[in-house]
Specification:
The protein is of the alpha/beta class. The strands form 2 sheets. It has a 7-stranded parallel sheet with strand order 9-8-7-10-11-12-13, sandwiched between helices. It has a 6-stranded parallel sheet with strand order 2-1-3-4-5-6, sandwiched between helices. Strand 1, helix 3 and strand 2 form a beta-alpha-beta unit. It is globular, with a radius of gyration of 22 Å. The relative contact order is 0.11.
Length: 475
């Protein structure tokens, strides 16, 4: 369903009324299109004294074709991507300087709370000049990897800073925290590319950690990083699952699409658009599902698969006092127990070559912010989605022994047929109660899945990435 309020406030009388009344004006987000540059303008790169990422960041941005400016090279402006408006500070030629599309700050040199002033020193003169749909990325050290308590204290402060910046930004701009432990500097390229690009349009205020434990192999072509790989997507016949399948195929993968036999027509159509592999009709909650899945995958892809996306899920909503055991059992069986059983078989299948999922593979689970914040009438659903987060975090170190990463995406309010059926007032609250003041699109979830699936993301595992526009729920 179209967001009529967003369209109304975009121009004309609606835009005028919203500005005069102080109403939110959701910015049309810049989303990824094949062939577009990483950033729509220059990046300003800064850092605290003693940081260990500055040289690596500059080389990475240069290799991506991004124009890099020093902090003193761009003036501030009273109107910006952070505050709205147009124009920029005058440059040396007297012409308005091009607004920075990104502000990137290496905070790894901050080893005590007194040095946190460096954040203010860098961002204060620049933040209001950030372009619409601009990016703020702060890079730090995981507090648990800090050398001393004072450093751990200061590095933990970065999360509060970044989350607050994300809530202050306007016009589609985002803020992220990327934590890079010592020794993992070369494993952060895929994550930094994702956070700076339009692929992360509906992700803001999120901390992500690079563990550096797995191989982070830069793809030959960052436009098609999944070329030569085969993926399995469950719940692929429609909605978010269908878009995930199509996005993985866009990035080069052959996709095996799985769903219930009742979705046969839709499933076949998605499969045809996603690499031509024969679709797989299967009830993942059936007793014999793990074995049936292994046999079906080997028939279609004898060499095994590289990516598994557990997207299938159901809801059976009722408040706890009115919820019968059938509603409880069915949701837990599909959303959580089936994922555990399938992963066990995929990782240790009995066929030739060991597990169906090959070494160096990727597992991505679709959780939900309901699993983080809870939701009225969804005790069963929230329990299943929180359980998925626990499964990801517990399985990640085990799977790492084979170079396999295990991560989760946690969508917020995403515009689908399901959310279109939500009562109007609840739907509008879901759309506006986030820093973007709008709902996300299925492709926003798909882009996050594709990021985790990339060969360049081998150093990222056990992570949960919220795709929610920095929702106020569970913040």
């Amino acid at each position: 369903m179209a967001d009529r309020y967003q369209k109304w406030t975009a121009r004309g009388p609606g835009a005028f009324a919203a500005k005069r009344l102080g109403l939110p004006r959701p910015e049309p987000l810049r989303r990824y299109r094949p062939g577009q540059p990483l950033l729509a303008g220059p990046a300003v790169l800064g850092g605290a004294d003693g940081g260990r990422l500055g040289t690596r960041l500059r080389a990475l941005l240069d290799s991506c074709g991004v124009q890099v400016r020093e902090p003193g090279g761009t003036g501030g402006s009273e109107e910006s991507g952070g505050s709205g408006g147009n124009g920029g500070a005058p440059g040396a030629s007297g012409r308005p300087a091009e607004r920075p599309a990104a502000l990137v700050f290496d905070a790894t040199g901050i080893t005590g709370s007194g040095q946190l002033r460096a954040l203010h020193g860098f961002f204060h003169p620049l933040i209001r000049s950030l372009a619409p749909c601009g990016r703020v990325v702060v890079l730090g050290t995981p507090p648990e990897r800090a050398a001393r308590p004072a450093e751990a204290t200061a590095q933990r402060a970065l999360e509060g800073f970044v989350r607050s910046v994300g809530k202050e930004l306007r016009r589609g701009a985002t803020a992220q925290l990327l934590l890079v432990p010592p020794g993992a500097e070369d494993a952060c390229e895929s994550t930094l590319r994702f956070l700076l690009s339009a692929r992360s349009a509906y992700v803001s205020g999120q901390p992500l950690s690079v563990t550096g434990g797995g191989a982070a192999d830069a793809p030959e072509d960052w436009e098609r990083p999944l070329a030569g790989r085969t993926a399995l997507v469950t719940g692929a016949s429609r909605g978010i699952g269908a878009v995930i399948a199509e996005t993985l195929h866009r990035d080069g993968a052959r996709v095996l699409c799985l769903d219930l036999a009742a979705q046969r027509a839709d499933l076949a159509a998605v499969a045809a658009r996603s690499g031509g592999l024969e679709p797989l009709e299967l009830d993942i909650a059936a007793e014999d599902a793990p074995g049936a899945l292994e046999r079906a995958v080997r028939e279609r892809s004898p060499e095994g698969i590289d990516i598994v996306v557990h997207n299938a899920g159901i809801t059976r909503d009722k408040t706890l006092g009115r919820m019968d055991t059938g509603r409880w059992d069915s949701v837990l069986a599909v959303n959580l127990t089936a994922v555990e059983r399938l992963n066990e078989r995929l990782l240790s299948g009995s066929g030739r070559g060991g597990g169906v999922l090959r070494d160096g593979g990727r597992i991505v689970c679709t959780s939900s912010i309901a699993g983080i914040a809870g939701n009225v009438g969804q005790t069963n659903y929230a329990a299943s989605k929180a359980g998925l987060i626990g499964h990801v975090q517990a399985l990640a170190p085990v799977a790492a022994e084979r170079g396999i990463t295990v991560n989760a995406v946690a969508p917020g309010f995403i515009e689908t047929r399901m959310t279109a059926a939500v009562p109007l007032l609840i739907r509008e609250a879901g759309r506006r109660m986030n820093s973007m003041r709008q709902g996300g699109q299925p492709v926003d979830v798909a882009e996050a899945v594709a990021y985790f699936a990339s060969p360049g993301s081998g150093g990222v595992t056990g992570q949960v990435l919220r795709v929610c526009g920095q929702s106020l729920l569970g913040a």
